[in-house]
Amino acid sequence: MTYRAPVEEYNFLFDHVVGLEALRGTDRFADATADVTRAILTEAGKMCEEVLAPLQRSGDLHPARLENGVVRTSPGFDKGFKAIAEGGWVGMAADPEYGGMGLPMALTAAVGEMMSAACLSLQLAPMLTQGQIEALEHHASDALKELYLPKMISGEWTGTMNLTEPQAGSDVGALTTKAEDNGDGTYAISGQKIYISWGDHDLGGNVCHLVLARLADAPAGVRGISLFLVPKLLPDADGNPGARNGVNVVSLEHKMGLHGSPTCVMQYDNATGWLVGEPQGGMAAMFTMMNNARLGVGGQGIGIADASYQHALAYAQDRKQGKTSAPALKDSIIGHADVRRMLTTMKADVFAARAIAVSNAVAIDMAKATGDKAWTARAALLTPITKAFGTDTGIAVADMGLQVHGGMGFVEDTGAAQFCRDVRVTAIYEGTNGIQAMDLVARKMMDGGEAAMALLDEVEKDVEAARATFPRLANDVWEATESMREATEWLVSQTDLQERFAGAVPYLHAFARVLGAHLHLKAAVADRGGAREKLARFYIQRMLPEHAALLAHAQAGAEDLYALTAEELAG
Amino acid sequence: MTYRAPVEEYNFLFDHVVGLEALRGTDRFADATADVTRAILTEAGKMCEEVLAPLQRSGDLHPARLENGVVRTSPGFDKGFKAIAEGGWVGMAADPEYGGMGLPMALTAAVGEMMSAACLSLQLAPMLTQGQIEALEHHASDALKELYLPKMISGEWTGTMNLTEPQAGSDVGALTTKAEDNGDGTYAISGQKIYISWGDHDLGGNVCHLVLARLADAPAGVRGISLFLVPKLLPDADGNPGARNGVNVVSLEHKMGLHGSPTCVMQYDNATGWLVGEPQGGMAAMFTMMNNARLGVGGQGIGIADASYQHALAYAQDRKQGKTSAPALKDSIIGHADVRRMLTTMKADVFAARAIAVSNAVAIDMAKATGDKAWTARAALLTPITKAFGTDTGIAVADMGLQVHGGMGFVEDTGAAQFCRDVRVTAIYEGTNGIQAMDLVARKMMDGGEAAMALLDEVEKDVEAARATFPRLANDVWEATESMREATEWLVSQTDLQERFAGAVPYLHAFARVLGAHLHLKAAVADRGGAREKLARFYIQRMLPEHAALLAHAQAGAEDLYALTAEELAG
After folding, report:
1. For B352-367, what is each residue's pLDDT tens digit?
2. What molecular function does GO assign, one term (chains A, B) (predicted)?
């Protein structure tokens, strides 16, 4: 399995599609010049191609395992993680005060996608650590920051998120893990957490858990939740890993894929923890980490989509089977119309999902650099779209990649099936894609649709500008955007949230289709007559039309969803 | 994992949707009265629920394995296969002259779906045997029939299909396996075949291979291919299994799923074989088996879809998480709008795919019973749709079923992931779904679209009749049918097949959407005010609109598929 990092594609997106020049115009990110971003992408790409990509199969064939309470990682993962840490890739967006590079999220997202494509199960460890870094930066005390941030930024220590309990998955407010005040500035944490990715490992250093728990007499629900930092090894007076804390891995899950990532059941027994943020303010702190991770998980989907695409393309060029009347490559299956259809669909959606994710990252960066609330709202609006569309694209593209392989796709040796199995969880973790869609139509529309409409205004402005060059394409995108606007108006007019939730997922997908068309069109304008214009034509003519059926579904309301009783559903 | 066979659903389909009363009016199938079909479905359903369903996990957890050249099957598969054989389920459609029950394919398809749902990997063995029985009935000499058919019909011996070679998958004409005339009525077969499902096993009896091979001096391509029956054990003078033939299992594939089904690489070294059909007439004989198997594989997809749906529904009713304002079941996740959306979508597509498959089977039966070529053409038209839509539905529904489970879906213990892994191959084997779509738009349209138009005429006739009862639903289906008619006219007007192939898969999906709407509407008419009317509303209002985007894609032509060069695809 070979992998080529999409360095040129990111350079193009940065320069022509997602507006990195505006970011470079801010004081905060003035150093992220084209030369710098180019050099960083090249360097990261090299590591992904040469060091990480060879580990992809290792993680699948030799899953992480639990031995006498210690997690043993897959062969080669230690070297892979060392390369990530030593390259400074964990802390690339982190605060320079603690050793970070202070680079834009746009670059972090790009590098995260490449690392995911190269070795998804390993990339999850630094990705979660990055989320924890951001949460600590925003919410931890100075003492905690000084102790933990340098170690996490350098990749010496890793981080995890501990939300889920058996009875509290999507409904985080139902959690029962307890925190008792020890009276010395620390808390005693007790309870069980499940689905803890990279909850333990043998890569050295320390494992730092951010744990949601409930203080004595805390109110019920999410308002009563606090956040604690619970290290596996308690730092000694010098800040080095010392005595074992009361936290243990009970078992690892046997999963469909992502075997290289240990998914742990964690037991906390009076483990010593430190409060992060305010008492009962755990959800706010956790959301900092979750939002970071949601962008990251979207990138995971895109990374696997790209890796599957490259893999399927190579197979299609190589595999001789049948003859076609295609102008070239008559003997390889890439000459067949339906194989072309699959490959072009894959490529077009990788572009769309990636461009949306980078736009999202740029919005985060602009919010940080300018303090403008409109950018904050934009970032918040795009996050669930990036997460859900990125991961659904990962699943759909990996599935098509398998299909391109024919019978070989179902046989594990090719690696096509592993992409499908590995990427499947990305639509579930960090909030299922259904939860993302509910977030989009409820929380992200609490502004009455203002952020959504502002984005659609911007789309239409760009489309108007493209009309002279590509009248037909621009017209298609403009009409789709108008439909999106109407659907959004309908949505925000629904005061009963069930009406919105009933069509939330199709609405999110339609939004992604329209944004994808917008970004494809921008790329076509910048690459007139080139490959990107051709790809934009394919996307806008063949894939964008889906938005109409999705919007019909989105506005169908809740009534017919509940028309069938539970008995009738079972009948 | 529990499974409830859809006996009542099939009774309803038979009585109200697919026109089994016409079949019962023929001489040939006059005995298939409502009482008979009901009794048979009930009996088969009982076996599937009680004997086969408990084996589903066993096949996954304890894959078939090769030991000293012999395939050892998963624990319990011997008892499961015995129940299938002794129940007479292998030979239910077979000629009574050789011990078959002579029942309609409509019933065989129904029972096949149920057995697939209960244990897909085991069901593949009798399914392939049924295909071989049909091929022998139509093409073998009387001597071969007398020797082999009773043993296969009783389930004592099983059958396989040997088409694929490493360099000859979808392009069967490229195969190189040789057959030399031994001059005594037998042939010496030599070559290697891959992806041979159930190529060997330890369930007793004999394994009979139908092998495509090339006689000396045969012309190149598919016209030079002949078909041979090659038993693992050569029958002795009494017709009992005797000496080992020159055929061996070289290895088993390590697959993404369907672990209970041994997928063999077979080596033939001067193996003794008997010609089936005419020399160079192998493809015609093989197509008898393939068409049977394509209907069967469509049923496999539907079976797994139904099993996943039942499994996800049970989980959704049981799993408490969050609260909703839904009228009932507030605490279970089935109260959540998006979970309802997924479950209702799953149920609606199971109905559509199943009704299409049974219509297909009825057309086969009517052709057999009446000799009317219009029924033959109808069956031929529906076969690729049944296969591709049935299996794509299996994949999509199993995927949604996993998603309904949230994090538990990605963990193997629940079985939701197994459905996804197992069903994935059904879109590939017996002709990939891309091949099915090419078959639909090329071979099945060689009549200038006559069979397709006749079917659409029938749809519109039924829709007109439903207009008084359901004006809005009928109107939606009528308009979609008109669009389908226009797309079909465009398609048959394309003399360059590449233009058709470019949109073949979306065209097939659109056709399935429209046929699904037709059959849902018929069900609604028969069940006014009942669950089926509610389900039809959901399907027609939320899922049918997809046809428009699919037809836009179907008619977009080949040009933009080939616009991107291979270099640009890689760029």
Report:
1. 999 999 999 999 999 9
2. oxidoreductase activity, acting on the CH-CH group of donors
